[in-house]
């Protein structure tokens, strides 16, 4: 140890091979100030001095470890057999917190999902739903749809993620591959405004049919309580007294 100035070279090598590291790796999408990142002095927590960088996990490097490499190899091979270049369909692969996520170009989402379901070595027969995410700072990819796929045959769990810009919030529907996604896609449309092309009946599922806007987007107004008490009206949370 002493001849290496106290650094274990094998340990240092192993650290550099770990995939999906956080910290300085990955893409910075915004700098958050305060406890919850409120803008315009709306931080009522008293922690307005907190500043942190918000980053998305970066792409992982091979080897991913465990069965992750087997799934990645099989998926890439199956796409090549269909005449697709894997790098065109898979934008990046992220391994983070012992989970693997394939970021898929939206025009290839349907084909990748069908491959994952039907290939005998993959057999991800079940999609447990789709979740929406809105990253205001991820310019050109503000809206994300995240799919959770489980292989009952191989007892494995992976994630697919696809992005779309606010200006063009369209992604393919997976109902034809995973019929249970029907209401999940409707809920994601209802709250985030993601339009799932090819869905058999894309209508609101939680909010009234004539509701304006999508309540779980980050730029949606928080709203106030329309009740007056002793001549005072309760303002929206982001307009209340600030302690910063």
Automatic annotation (TrEMBL):
The NADH:ubiquinone oxidoreductase 30kDa subunit domain is annotated at: 103-224
Q: Which domain of life is it from?
A: Bacteria
Its localization reads: Cell membrane
**GO molecular function terms noted in the UniProt entry:** NADH dehydrogenase (quinone) (non-electrogenic) activity; NADH dehydrogenase (ubiquinone) activity; quinone binding
Q: Per its UniProt entry, what is the enzyme's top EC class, as one word?
A: translocase
**Pfam families named among the record's database cross-references:** Complex1_30kDa
Q: How does it sit in the membrane?
A: Peripheral membrane protein
Q: Which InterPro entries match?
A: NADH_DH_suC, NADH_quin_OxRdtase_su_C/D-like, NADH_UbQ_OxRdtase_30kDa_su
ATP-binding among keywords: no
Q: What are the boundaries of the region Disordered?
A: 1-24
Query: According to its UniProt record, which reaction does this protein catalyse?
Result: a quinone + NADH + 5 H(+)(in) = a quinol + NAD(+) + 4 H(+)(out)
Which keywords appear in this protein's UniProt record, sorted alphabetically? Answer: Cell membrane, Membrane, NAD, Oxidoreductase, Quinone, Translocase, Transport
> What Gene Ontology cellular-component terms does the record carry?
plasma membrane
Enzyme Commission number: 7.1.1.-
Which family would the database say this protein is a member of?
A: Belongs to the complex I 30 kDa subunit family.
* Functional note: NDH-1 shuttles electrons from NADH, via FMN and iron-sulfur (Fe-S) centers, to quinones in the respiratory chain. The immediate electron acceptor for the enzyme in this species is believed to be a menaquinone. Couples the redox reaction to proton translocation (for every two electrons transferred, four hydrogen ions are translocated across the cytoplasmic membrane), and thus conserves the redox energy in a proton gradient.
Q: How does it assemble?
A: NDH-1 is composed of 14 different subunits. Subunits NuoB, C, D, E, F, and G constitute the peripheral sector of the complex.
Under what name is this protein listed?
Answer: NADH-quinone oxidoreductase subunit C
């Amino acid at each position: 140890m002493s001849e290496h100035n106290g650094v274990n070279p094998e340990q240092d090598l192993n650290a550099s091979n770990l995939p999906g590291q956080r910290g300085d790796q990955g893409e910075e999408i915004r700098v958050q100030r305060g406890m919850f990142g409120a803008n315009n002095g709306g931080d009522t927590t008293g922690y307005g001095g907190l500043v942190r960088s918000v980053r998305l996990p970066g792409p992982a490097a091979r080897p991913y470890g465990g069965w992750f490499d087997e799934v990645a190899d099989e998926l890439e091979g199956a796409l090549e057999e269909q005449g697709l270049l894997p790098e065109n369909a898979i934008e990046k692969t992220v391994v983070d917190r012992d989970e693997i996520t394939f970021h898929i170009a939206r025009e290839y989402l349907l084909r990748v999902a069908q491959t994952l379901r039907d290939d005998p070595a993959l057999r991800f027969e079940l999609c447990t739903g789709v979740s929406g995410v809105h990253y205001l700072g991820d310019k050109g990819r503000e809206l994300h749809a995240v799919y959770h796929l489980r292989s009952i045959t191989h007892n494995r769990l992976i994630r697919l993620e696809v992005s779309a810009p606010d200006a063009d919030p369209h992604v393919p529907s997976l109902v034809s591959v995973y019929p249970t996604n029907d209401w999940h896609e409707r809920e994601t449309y209802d709250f985030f405004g993601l339009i799932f092309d090819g869905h058999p009946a894309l209508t609101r599922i939680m909010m009234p049919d004539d509701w304006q806007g999508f309540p779980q987007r980050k730029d949606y107004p928080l709203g106030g309580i329309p009740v007056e008490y002793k001549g005072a009206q309760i303002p929206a949370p982001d307009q209340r007294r600030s302690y910063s």
